[in-house]
Every structure is written in structure tokens, then in C-alpha cells.
Known about the structure:
- The chain has about 190 residues and is an alpha+beta fold.
- The protein has helices at about 20-30, 30-35, 45-60, 110-125, 140-145, 175-180, and strands at about 5, 10-15, 65-75, 75-85, 90-100, 130-135, 150-160, 165-175.
- β7 (about 150-160) and β8 (about 165-175) form a beta hairpin.
- The protein is globular.
- Keywords: Transferase.
- This is Ribosomal-protein-serine acetyltransferase.
Amino acid sequence: MLTYRVDDEITLRLLDVHHALTLFRCIQVNRKHLRRWLLWVAETLCVEDCWKFILYTHKKAAKEEEFHFGIWYRGELSGVIGAHSIDWTTKSAEVGYWLSESLQGRGIVTRSVLHMIRFLFEEHDMNRVEIRCALSNLKSQAIPRRLGFQLVGMLREAEKVEGQLENLLIFELLRSEWKSIYQNVVVDTWNP
């Protein structure tokens, strides 16, 4: 199982079927918070739903179409970060993430996204990484802004948030920008 040690507190691991119960419990505890931003939460009703999702991620990872990692914070599964919408022709991918509400504000997602970007640019030779956030999701927007992404556009009424159509902001970071911003940043390597 692919595991990546971000720092002393955070580890990213490809989700495996034995994580299904823990993942479901994490979603359950954060259901009210997550359903505001993520439509799939309403359809995740039992452990089997998480198990099916994890099997789906294995198939996608085997084809290098998507990669979904659990975010372990101090040994506890606390969220998920993923690369999806991978386009090998344009060498682009979209990154998405969620974290337990009680752990927000500690830089966990920022550090995880930083290392996911490295994974995509350096391990998979991507040229462009995109993050999309609802206009009202200020905490999620702070991540790409903090990491040097450029706000490149807005899709109007493109996402349903709490039953209402909302604008979706699009942030992008190019490989060339990554190299100039992070040329002196030392990141651990992937650990098998």
C-alpha cells in the first residue's frame, strides 16, 4: 500500500478495504459539516458504501485515472485527499480534499495538498493541477491561495450547496510555477 509521510503528524495512505469502517465513522461524525459541501455524503449511508468507494478507487488507481489517500493525523484517519479528472493528454489533474471539522485550522490540509502536488508534478509528470471550491467555502479557498495557485475563473451556478446552485472558483498551479515557488522546499519521498 502506497504510504507517504508528510511530517511527524501527517501520513497519507492509499485507502484500502480494511479502512472502510474507520472511514465511515469519520464521515458519520462529520456528516452535518461535510454534506454542506459534498453531495456524495448523502449517499454514504453505511460501511458497505465506503467499502464500494474504496474498491472503486483501487480500480481507478490501477488505471492511473484517480488516486485517493486517507489523511492520517496523529495516527487517526481524519479525512481524504484525492487527485481525479486526470488527463494524460494535457497532463492535468484536479485535487479535492475534506477533513474532520474538529481538526481544521491546523494546516493539515495545506500540508497534505502540498505533498499531493509534489506527487502529481514529480512522480506523475503533470503540468497543471486544479482545485475547485464553492464561492462560499472560504476555508477551502484558503488552501490554493496559500500554496500559490492562481484564481483563473469561475463557473457560474455550477455546484449545488445546501440545495442552492452556487458559483465554483477554479484555481490552477502550473508545473513551472511550482518549480519557481517550491524549488527550495524539501519534501520526503514516497515510502512503499
